[in-house]
């Protein structure tokens, strides 16, 4: 009777393993939204807990069958063979569920990381847009133009590491068919805005550099002219003081 009961327990255990495989491993998941992906992660966590909770039952079943095989070898050996098959299937199930759970957790982590990098770069783009707007309608003063140029250049020196991470993380998820539509849309919008603002910012940088160069050249010319006028004024004053006749002066002084 004990052998019959153990055989029944083995059959029930194998049936449970088969059902778990169908429910957790053979089901086709489509991760088209973050909610679907998050739900899949939580479901696999529950599956892992559910499978691991069977360890106690499996151990008890294993000990009982081995004990029976020791006491009644004739009926126990067949059960040991069946037990080994069930144990192998159970262990395979555990490994596959652990693997899938780990993979989904990694995928979720990848998605969260992508969002974080997008937030960082979006904040930088907002800052860049603000600095570009600040370069408009500047007062016609050298200091104001120079400050605006330095401010813009400081933002443009932003490293490209985050954008590299965004591209790699997004491509990894898209290649896996995970949230591909959402990620493609987000990356397309981000890249379009990045290209537009970057080109605008560089154009404004070049314009400010040219404006600054022109203002510096104009200031230099004015300074030279003022120095020449001051020297001429000094010479004329000297001529007047010395009562020099106009026709005795150099041509330029006349």
Question: Secondary-structure map with pairings?
Answer:
Layout: H1 2-25, H2 34-53, H3 55-71, H4 73-134, H5 142-156, H6 161-175, H7 180-241
Helix pairs in contact: 1-3, 1-4, 2-4, 3-4, 4-5, 4-6, 4-7, 5-7, 6-7
Task: Characterise this structure.
There is one protein chain. With 254 residues, this protein is mostly helical. The protein has a single domain, classed as Methane Monooxygenase Hydroxylase, Chain G, domain 1 (Up-down Bundle), CATH 1.20.58. Helix content is 85%, strand content 0%. The protein has seven helices and no strands. It starts with a helix and ends in a 13-residue tail after the last helix. The mean pLDDT is 88. InterPro entries: Spectrin/alpha-actinin (IPR018159), Spectrin_repeat (IPR002017). Keywords: Coiled coil.
Number of strands: 0
Radius of gyration: 40 Å
Could you spell the SSE succession in H and E letters?
A: HHHHHHH
CATH architecture term? Up-down Bundle
Head-to-tail CA distance between termini: 137 Å
Q: Which regions are unreliable across 5 or more consecutive residues at pLDDT < 50?
A: none
- The helical percent reads over 70%
Choose one word for the global shape: rod-shaped
Highest CATH level, the class: Mainly Alpha
SS element count, helices:
7
CATH topology: Methane Monooxygenase Hydroxylase, Chain G, domain 1
Please give the largest β-sheet.
Answer: none
Protein name: UTRO protein
Keywords: Coiled coil
Coiled coil: 3-64, 208-242
């Amino acid at each position: 009777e004990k052998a019959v009961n153990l055989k029944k327990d083995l059959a029930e255990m194998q049936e449970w393993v088969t059902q778990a495989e169908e429910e957790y491993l053979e089901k086709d998941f489509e991760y088209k939204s973050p909610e679907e992906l998050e739900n899949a992660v939580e479901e696999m966590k529950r599956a892992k807990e559910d499978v691991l909770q069977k360890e106690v039952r499996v151990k008890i079943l294993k000990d009982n069958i081995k004990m029976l095989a020791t006491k009644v070898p004739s009926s126990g050996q067949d059960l040991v063979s069946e037990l080994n098959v069930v144990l192998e299937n159970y262990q395979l199930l555990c490994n596959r569920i652990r693997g899938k759970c780990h993979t989904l957790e990694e995928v979720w982590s990848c998605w969260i990381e992508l969002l974080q990098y997008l937030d960082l770069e979006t904040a930088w783009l907002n800052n860049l847009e603000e600095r570009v707007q600040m370069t408009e309608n500047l007062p016609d003063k050298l200091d104001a133009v120079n400050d605006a140029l330095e401010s813009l250049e400081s933002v443009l020196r932003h490293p490209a590491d985050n954008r590299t991470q965004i591209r790699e993380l997004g491509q990894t998820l898209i290649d896996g068919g995970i949230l591909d539509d959402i990620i493609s849309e987000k990356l397309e919008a981000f890249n379009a805005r990045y290209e537009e603002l970057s080109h605008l910012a560089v154009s404004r940088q070049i314009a400010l550099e040219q404006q600054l160069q022109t203002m510096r050249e104009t200031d230099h010319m004015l300074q030279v002219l003022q120095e020449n006028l001051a020297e001429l004024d000094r010479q004329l004053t000297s001529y007047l003081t010395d009562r020099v006749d106009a026709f005795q002066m150099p041509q330029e002084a006349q």
